[in-house]
């Protein structure tokens, strides 16, 4: 039995066109982009083209793009880099309680180095309150880092409003757009955003490739040292095929944002209708108006998440309890805990369903029936 | 095409690409996901780790997968420095390290560590007695490049390792990026605690590498985030890259077992030819040098001019390290060996791989000699 993969927020299959292009690059353009001969120049040309194309896609120039090994590295580079480069202006950082661990743990790491971090609360929909941000801002705040769209419940933050609120302040604004990129349009000019992280493997691109957007003139200290690649901001031979794969995946996802949105809304409808038809009690974790359409986090009262996941998996449906990076641990989701409180049963009885490439209406119908049946059985 | 810039990067093995392709398609799930598909990826990751460990003669738990040589070196050096700074803040390295380690040390100096840069002799070798003199009670780390990437000098790691075994408080890191598959290194016997290698230098994919960390050595991670790689390296694992790198490692080490002597013959053939030409000054020492790198100055001919002239005939060599080939000036490594600045500025590097053939070298030598004569007549 072929499992139905509904965990696209954890990672996605590589799009065949992306893979094809990458293999082509591996074979033909294997030079080191720093080499001065033709092989090097060719490799440099393809990564610079990718840089420009990716820049255009998020509303900036190629020179403001720093390629990384993925989202975690981009988040670390942004947060630590901004903190260290600006510590003379202050040592206060603002983030939220529902960040991905790549951000949360990096902020905790900075606390150990003498920085002070405010972790903002969210409401029960997972949304931040602009007033809270305003109140948390201090004269010595140097960085505000907030997730664009949450990876567990899909709640979108008022990024544009936050960016405008921060405009008169010295603090830099970083957003982790790893989960949001490719599902919604992102333009760094519109917001305006100083630093933005994204990764390829969440949008049917390769693992091991991501980028950090750094607004022109924004100082960040490099955290790694070596060669002079990426305008001295990120040393190491560039992962040329990975970068090309990232660009191709971004291009494909950009072309299909609207139709995919419709598809995901239809999938949600099928799932929720099936649950209702079967009299399954459920609640949606997240914000009813501001959410990423590919993520649906559901609370099933009276169930146990671990048992539910195992049984769904055996029945051929792959879903998750939260961020894959924490799925190995049995700790209740820090995101759901922040939304509903420590005592809430919700953090221990919710699953994340996430859509993506390669699914069909039939597959969703089948998965919905399996989920309804499994939840019903688990509650008995 | 005759590609003789294998120290910059290598062409991936077709078998490694095939693995990359298969794993991308069949094991796309996140190894941290707890569902069955995630389990398959985790299993594949485990198999790759076990195989890498077997190939290097170490334990699977001692392997940390990274995004490449620069990250591996940074993780090893800064990871040890931060983790053991209570014990001492003195580190020893050499004057001829790759930029990835050299600049990491410069960063540590800014962070309050004291770094001793051991000098090298005219062959590019360090002296054990110098090391003994430099070693202090508060020396926490010695980090040495095994095979220098510009001239190919091999350092006396066995002697150093054996002496170091008696100095229990000092850890030993080796940058083995250029040496792997070319100059055997016994990690256990030489008492090496940490060792960096990079996939794209042995016909694996770019964006991959691994760091050997001997059991019991504690390492402060470079990135904060998920708990991947035994908490040493956060971020979703690049599983297709990892599997392809391990495949390339296996092929490379097997090829090396059978054909290392052939490679030595190729190098000797070139050296013998160069020795008959009075216009050439060979910087690569006759003994204690790797079988794949020759660094040579052509009197009166600018390195860039020759590189481009050879390129006209589809032959690819380089000036110095690719990572620093865009910086102006003479090689830091050659200067450290006491080579006059003018001579160092005229040096080119020819670097072979186990894939090069005797015919290629014959053709290279023909064209090389012809080009030199042409250029000389133009200049003269």
TrEMBL record, chain A:
EC id: 2.8.1.7
Residue ranges of domain Aminotransferase class V in the record: 4-365
SUPFAM superfamilies: PLP-dependent transferases (SSF53383)
Record flagged with keyword Methyltransferase: no
Catalytic activity field: (sulfur carrier)-H + L-cysteine = (sulfur carrier)-SH + L-alanine
Gene Ontology MF terms in the entry: cysteine desulfurase activity; iron-sulfur cluster binding; metal ion binding
Keyword Cell division: no
Needed co-factor(s): pyridoxal 5'-phosphate
Matches recorded under Pfam families: Aminotran_5
Keywords: Iron, Iron-sulfur, Metal-binding, Pyridoxal phosphate, Transferase
Top-level taxon: Bacteria
Top-level EC class as recorded in UniProt: transferase
NCBIfam families tied to this protein: PRK02948.1 (NF002806)
UniProt record similarity statement: Belongs to the class-V pyridoxal-phosphate-dependent aminotransferase family. NifS/IscS subfamily.
Protein name listed in UniProt: cysteine desulfurase
UniProtKB/TrEMBL annotation, chain B:
Pfam families the record matches: Aminotran_5
Domain Aminotransferase class V: 2-364
Coiled coil: none
Cofactor field: pyridoxal 5'-phosphate
MF term (GO), any: iron-sulfur cluster binding
Keyword set includes Iron-sulfur: yes
Keyword vocabulary terms for this entry: Iron, Iron-sulfur, Metal-binding, Pyridoxal phosphate
Family: Belongs to the class-V pyridoxal-phosphate-dependent aminotransferase family. NifS/IscS subfamily.
Record-given protein name: Cysteine desulfurase
């Amino acid at each position: 039995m072929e499992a139905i993969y509904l965990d696209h927020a954890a990672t996605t299959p590589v799009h065949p066109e992306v893979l094809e292009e990458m293999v082509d690059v591996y074979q033909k353009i294997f030079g080191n982009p720093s080499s001065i001969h033709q092989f090097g120049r060719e490799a440099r040309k393809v990564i610079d083209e990718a840089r420009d194309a990716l820049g255009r896609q998020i509303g900036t120039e190629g020179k403001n793009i720093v390629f990384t090994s993925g989202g975690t590295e981009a988040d670390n580079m942004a947060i630590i880099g901004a903190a260290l480069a600006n510590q003379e202006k202050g040592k206060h950082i603002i983030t939220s309680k529902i960040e991905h661990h790549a951000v949360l743990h990096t902020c905790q790491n900075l606390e150990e180095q003498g920085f002070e971090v405010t972790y903002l609360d969210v409401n029960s929909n997972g949304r931040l309150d602009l007033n809270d941000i305003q109140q948390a801002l201090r004269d010595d705040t140097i960085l505000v880092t907030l997730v664009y769209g949450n990876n567990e419940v899909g709640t979108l933050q008022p990024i544009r409003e936050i960016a405008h609120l921060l405009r008169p302040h010295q603090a830099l604004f970083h957003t982790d757009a790893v989960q949001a990129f490719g599902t919604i349009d992102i333009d760094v000019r519109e917001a305006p955003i100083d630093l933005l992280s994204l990764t390829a493997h969440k949008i049917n691109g390769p693992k091991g490739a991501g980028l950090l957007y750094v607004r022109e003139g924004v100082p960040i200290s490099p955290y790694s040292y070596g060669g002079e690649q990426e305008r001295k901001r990120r040393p190491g031979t560039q992962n040329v095929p990975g970068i090309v794969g990232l660009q191709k995946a971004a291009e494909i996802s950009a072309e299909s944002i609207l139709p995919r949105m419709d598809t995901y809304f239809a999938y949600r409808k099928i799932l929720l209708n099936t649950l209702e038809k079967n009299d399954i009690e459920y609640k949606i974790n997240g914000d009813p108006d501001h959410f990423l359409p590919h993520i649906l986090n559901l609370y099933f009262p009276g169930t146990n998440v671990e048992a539910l996941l195992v049984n769904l998996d055996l029945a051929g449906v792959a879903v998750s309890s939260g961020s894959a990076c924490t799925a190995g641990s049995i700790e209740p989701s820090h995101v759901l805990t922040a939304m509903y409180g420590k005592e809430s049963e919700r953090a221990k009885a919710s699953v994340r369903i996430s859509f993506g490439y390669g699914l069909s209406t039939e597959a969703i119908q089948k998965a919905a029936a399996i989920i309804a049946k499994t939840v019903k059985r688990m509650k008995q | 095409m005759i590609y003789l810039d294998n120290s910059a990067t290598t062409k991936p093995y077709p078998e490694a690409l095939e693995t990359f392709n298969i794993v991308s398609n069949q094991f796309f799930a996140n190894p941290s996901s707890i569902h069955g598909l995630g389990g398959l990826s985790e299993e594949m990751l485990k198999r790759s780790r076990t195989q890498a460990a077997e190939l290097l003669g170490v334990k699977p738990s001692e392997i940390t997968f990274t995004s490449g040589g620069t990250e591996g070196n940074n993780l090893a050096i800064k990871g040890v420095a931060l983790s053991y700074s209570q014990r001492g803040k003195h580190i020893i390295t050499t004057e001829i390290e790759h930029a990835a380690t050299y600049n990491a040390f410069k960063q540590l100096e800014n962070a309050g560590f004291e770094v001793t840069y051991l000098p090298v002799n005219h062959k590019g070798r360090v002296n054990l007695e110098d090391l003994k003199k430099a070693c202090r009670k508060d020396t926490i780390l010695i980090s040495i490049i095994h095979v220098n990437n510009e001239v190919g000098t091999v350092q006396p790691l066995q002697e150093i390792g054996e002496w170091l075994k008696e100095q229990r408080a000092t850890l030993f890191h080796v940058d083995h990026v250029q040496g792997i598959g070319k100059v055997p290194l016994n990690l256990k016997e030489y008492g090496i605690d940490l060792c960096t290698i990079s996939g794209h230098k042995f016909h694996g994919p770019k964006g991959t590498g691994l760091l050997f960390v001997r059991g019991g050595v504690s390492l402060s991670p470079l990135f904060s985030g998920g708990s991947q790689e035994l908490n040493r390296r956060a971020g979703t694992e690049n599983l297709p890259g990892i599997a392809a790198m391990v495949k390339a490692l296996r092929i490379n080490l097997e090829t090396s077992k059978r054909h290392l002597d052939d490679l030595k013959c190729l190098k000797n053939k070139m050296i013998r030819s160069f020795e008959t030409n009075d216009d050439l000054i060979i910087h690569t020492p006759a003994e204690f040098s790797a079988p794949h790198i020759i660094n040579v100055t052509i009197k009166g001919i600018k390195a860039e001019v020759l590189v481009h002239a050879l390129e006209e005939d589809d032959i690819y060599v380089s000036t110095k390290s690719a990572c620093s080939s865009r910086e102006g000036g003479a090689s830091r490594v050659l200067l450290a060996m006491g080579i006059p600045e003018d001579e160092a500025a005229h040096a080119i590097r020819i670097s072979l791989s186990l894939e090069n053939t005797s015919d290629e070298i014959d053709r290279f030598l023909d064209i090389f000699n012809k080009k030199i004569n042409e250029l000389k007549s133009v200049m003269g």
